[in-house]
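re the bet — no i am not wrong, look at it urself. input seq straight from the record:
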Amino acid sequence: MGQLPTRQEIPEELKWRLEDIFATDREWETELAQIRAHKDEIQNLRGTITSAQTLLHALQVRDEITQRLSRLISYANMRQDEDNTEPRYQRYADQAMRIAVEFNSAGGAFLQPEILALDPPRDVVRWIEQLPELEVYRHHLDNILRMKPHTLPAEQEELLAAAGELAQAPPGNIFQMFNNADLKFPPRVKNDEGQLVELTHGRYIQLLESRHQEVRRDVFEAMYTTYRGWKNTLGATYLAAVKKTALLFPGAQIPFFSRGGFARGQCKTRGLYQPS
């Protein structure tokens, strides 16, 4: 074990092949530009859902764009995961998130409210029966109808969608960079053979399963003593996450949050961690 090997020292057969998604970074950048150029395509679907065929078309256009965005985001995020300190892939991940939010706010956010605005809503069920190609979307459409009490008017859904990058990125991105790029654990801990090895997130689980209690104790204390040294920073990051949730969920009309249940400590966790 000893020193953690660099990525360049890892055999190729043990690495993921992101070239199967995009052969080169230039191909990724080309796809980003092409997707951005199609932003109006989904925006033009607004106000067109008047029949089974137009509903199917809107869903298929959304799915095609979503699949392309998924490839874009997967490549960018996994490249960043290879080395969280690499500026290029930090930028790629940020660009991928931004274009996804742009598409959602430009057109995707209106789709659910428009389906719910159909009068009567049972038109959706009738359309599924009329057009066999809609059958694959039955569960998805059922979920949209079921969430009607928690869905805002289109203008407000678009406002929340536009805030998507702020809602999804910090404080999660802050913790990711802290936890995977900047945080350093004590340089060496002992393994089962008494050898001094570098402590990492990946090795922590392996060492925590040691047959020797002292190894498990020392590894646990080494890791969490390090985190304890950052308790104020981590506490502030967690508080920001709670405030973000408290801001967004009342807007989505979720009763538990809008009543302040989280703040009053109504979240029951005992059953999750203790046997009944």
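see?? DSSP finds 14 helices and two strands in the chain. told u. also The chain has a mean pLDDT of 79. so pay up
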